[in-house]
Amino acid sequence: MAATRAMAVASQTTSCLLSKRRFSLSSNSRIANLCFNDKRVFFSSKRVFSCRAIYNPEVQIKVEGQPETLDYRLFFVDYSGKKISPWHDIPLQLGDGAFNFIVEIPKESSAKMEVATDELFTPIKQDTKKGKVRYYPYNINWNYGLLPQTWEDPSFANSEVEGAFGDNDPVDVVEIGQTQRKIGDILKVKPLGALAMIDEGELDWKIVAISLDDPKASLVNDVDDVEKHFPGTLTAIRDWFRDYKIPDGKPANKFGLGNKAANKDYALKVITETNESWAKLVKRSISPGELSLV
Question: Which residue, of 56, 115, 132, 153, has the fewest CB within 10 Å?
């Protein structure tokens, strides 16, 4: 039986990047920002500007199938119960340097969850291999997921990263906050840096970010701050993603940009470029192939 739960999305927006459709709220709208993860409920009256995206705090989660099975799907639905795409319909940018981040894999878990980019409404599912659900060989130590409305174009060779082509997926985020989140949570984050992972020749960006509700969020604004307040974390992230395929007999992944995390400005450049690529994709300026644009 399908289960539904309410989701928290940021309660305001002052700007938004490109979207497929228009959605707007009046400036005197009262927004209820609900957060059930820690059993608190917040209400705030904020001015909301029109934004070219479906954008509603009453986004809900509808689960179909049982966890850790081939049939499991986690769908996003709007206030009317209509399914929406977490990849295409959740806005990317919130203004003031904040972005929406959708959790696919909670920290300290190993089930390899991902947005199904080739299925209608792109639900979150568990990745499969040879007819079986997949797991990482060990837990991932950070919340992991995607930036909506981004796409790494497989036809674009990045001259700054060994000419590697995009991996045909949304941009990944590694959120370093202390709280373990839930699959499908939508967090308001700020980017801190970027790692240019090269996976079997494909460029697979990892944006390092922190949720704005984390106790240390105000202390970190760039990669140098991460080293200061989360010592060893950038190295640990790089090493985790470099080595996680080795137990399966595959070679280690590589990293461009000198094998180090680029700074916040570079991360923002990556986000802007991949948002522009996504815009071309949904306008069909680039062939989507098997990707779902719904």
Answer: 132
- List pLDDT tens digits, range 212-264: 999 999 999 999 999 999 999 999 999 999 999 999 999 999 999 999 999 99
Token pair listed for 165: 């082509």
Q: Which two tokens stand for residue 209?
A: 């970010």
CB 67 within 8 A of CB 32: no
Q: Which residues of 109-147 are buried (b: 16+ CB within 10 A; e: fewer)?
A: bebbbbbbbebebbbbbbeeeeeebeebeeebebbbbbb
Of 55, 72, 136, 244, catalytic: 136
User: What is the reported pTM?
Assistant: 0.83
Instruction: Confirm whether 136 is a catalytic residue.
Output: yes
**Distance (Å, whole) CA 76 – CA 94:** 19
Q: Find the DSSP H helices in the chain.
A: 223-229, 233-243, 264-282
Indicate the residue type of 280: K
CB-based contacts of 201, cutoff 8 Å, min separation 6: 164, 165
